[in-house]
UniProtKB/TrEMBL annotation:
Organism: Megasphaera stantonii
Annotated SUPFAM superfamilies: FAD-binding/transporter-associated domain-like, FAD-linked oxidases, C-terminal domain
Entry keyword set: FAD, Flavoprotein, Oxidoreductase
Pfam family, one: FAD_binding_4
Protein name in the entry: FAD-binding oxidoreductase
Positions of the FAD-binding PCMH-type domain: 43-222
Keyword Magnesium in annotation: no
UniProt-recorded Gene Ontology molecular function terms: FAD binding; oxidoreductase activity
Lineage, broadest ranks: Bacteria, Bacillati, Bacillota, Negativicutes, Veillonellales
Cofactor: FAD
Length: 467
């Protein structure tokens, strides 16, 4: 794709649109905006300018300018993405939403919140909790990522088994569309059959179809009774094998998370804390909610019996903070081991997950890969991290990672799966998206992008390329 460079004339117009303090071309200040959480420098790209918007009107003015002068606009939340979605691969500007960070309303009677896109996910969770309410979205990066980024990527996380992913938490969004108009999509309704569901089209579109400038999200009464069970299994197969049985039992867990033994030991080292069963155990963490203590006890007993039947060597009630600190430290622990990591986010139907795990382990052996595995097991979503050892040349490692990917994705698509369960395609996986997606489905996606963004201004080169 060819775009016009950001000239002094364009910079002046950008400054007029958002105010001089909200535009920078200082390389030191722009550097953090050249990457997301993908640490491999091969994926980093400097923007020509970083622009901070404070209102939807400013976002609209910037996008109109981009159409007039033909430069790319890359929307950015907190930059915690793992697919290089917020990286300006064709230059142009990064448009940061970090200053639009107000919770505009929390309605305790009608159970909703109205938020700007730069609200930190944990701030919304805390604000809801302070009123005895609950926001169900819970990506592991919740302490740093933004609601706008969560909506743009349809973030999943830890409670999707019971509450669904971010798209299930959203009533409506206000967006700036790719031609620079402010549009309201969706409504605060439990149901509607009123034309195309455009808010859901924008959710998960990774900043390619609209810039989210406001959203109304669902809140729930805070569950009063909850507990976390930690089931420790001697083998990965036993642990993943128990997931289907747990889901079929009729108890709807909030989450079912898996960590393999080497990952548990990696986290243990990172946190400097002894973790239960870390010598040889593989974890299932199962969180359940109840309507009162007895209800919770009954569920815990039933889950204990079921996990034991499936080979758990121990099942115990876990310390909530400790076990979730361990689960959420997965990405940082891996990063402490190696800065160059290939992160897969594959997803299959839950009943196919034992087969997928076996295939992952087989391929890792075949290609001599060092892996760390954690998964949102109740969603069929496995995070496979492949570490580059210091003493292995990059090219050699990258070649084996690619061979592994080819076999892995062929397997996944043959078993009804997809490339990404929650991190998205971004720039990082777009070649695989082209290769593995049904051509007719891909053609429909591209037709939508071309129709809504005729100048290919919004986040170009993400998900797929437009010819
Ligand atoms: C330690 C760690 C743990 C993680 N755990 C999870 C997890 O459990 N579940 C999960 O799903 N993800 C997880 N992630 C990935 C990441 O946090 C999510 O994808 C998150 O939703 C990204 O939000 P962000 O604000 O950082 O967005 P960014 O990284 O800034 O952007 C992500 C994408 O969204 C677009 N975008 C951002 N804001 C907007 C906007 N307002 N309008 C339009 N487009 C926008 C960007 O262009 C980009 O394509 C994790 C990441 C890390 C580092």
């Amino acid at each position: 794709m060819r775009y016009e460079p950001i000239t002094p004339e364009i910079l002046k117009k950008l400054q007029a649109a958002v105010g001089p303090k909200n535009v920078t071309t200082d390389p030191d200040k722009m550097q953090p905006y050249s990457h997301d959480e993908v640490t491999d420098p091969a994926y980093h790209h400097m923007p020509e300018a970083v622009v901070f918007a404070e209102t939807a009107e400013q976002v609209a003015a910037v996008v109109q300018l981009a159409n007039d002068y033909h430069f790319p606009v890359v929307p950015r939340g907190a930059g915690t993405g793992l697919a290089c979605g917020a990286v300006p691969i064709y230059g142009g500007i990064v448009l940061s939403l970090e200053k639009m960070n107000r919770i505009l309303e929390i309605n305790e009677d009608a159970l909703y919140a109205v938020v700007e896109p730069g609200v930190r996910t944990s701030d919304l969770q805390d604000a809801a909790e302070a009123k005895g309410l609950f926001y169900a979205g819970d990506p592991c990066s919740g302490d740093s990522c933004f609601i706008g980024g969560n909506i743009a990527t349809n973030a999943g996380g830890n409670r999707a088994v019971k509450y669904g992913t971010t798209r299930h938490q959203v009533y409506d969004v206000e967006i700036v569309n790719p031609t620079g108009r402010i549009v309201q999509l969706g409504a605060r309704l439990q149901k509607q059959s009123t034309g195309y569901c455009l808010e859901q089209l924008v959710i998960g579109s990774e900043g390619t179809l609209g810039i989210i400038t406001k959203a109304t999200v669902k809140l729930l009464p805070k569950p009063k009774y909850a507990l976390d069970l930690l089931a420790v299994f001697d083998s990965p197969e036993q642990a993943i094998g128990a997931v289907g049985a747990i889901l079929k039992q009729g108890i709807v867990p909030t989450c079912v998370e898996y960590m393999d033994n080497i990952t548990i030991r990696s986290v243990e080292k990172y946190l400097h804390e002894k973790l239960q069963g870390s010598d040889s155990g593989n974890y299932l963490i199962v969180e359940v909610e109840g309507i009162h203590d007895d209800d919770l006890d009954d569920k815990a007993v039933a889950l204990d019996e079921l996990c034991t039947q499936h080979g758990a060597s121990s099942v115990l009630v876990a310390d909530h903070n400790k076990i979730w600190q361990a689960r959420k430290a997965f990405a940082e622990a891996v990063r402490a081991e190696s800065l160059i990591v290939s992160k897969e986010d594959v997803v299959v139907p839950v009943d196919q997950e034992p087969l997928l795990l076996a295939e992952i382990l087989r391929l890792a052996g075949k290609y001599g890969l060092i892996t760390r595995i954690a998964s949102h097991a109740g969603d069929g979503n496995i995070h496979l991290n492949i570490l580059k050892p210091d003493d292995t040349p990059y090219e050699d490692w990258a070649r084996r990672v690619e061979q592994n990917q080819q076999e892995l994705y062929a397997f996944i698509y043959a078993h009804g799966g997809r490339l990404s369960g929650e991190h998205g395609i971004g720039f990082k996986r777009k070649h695989l998206m082209e290769e593995f997606t049904n051509p007719d489905e891909l053609a429909m996606m591209k037709a939508i992008k071309k129709a809504l963004d005729p100048n290919n201004i919004l986040n170009p080169g993400k998900i797929f390329d437009i010819e």
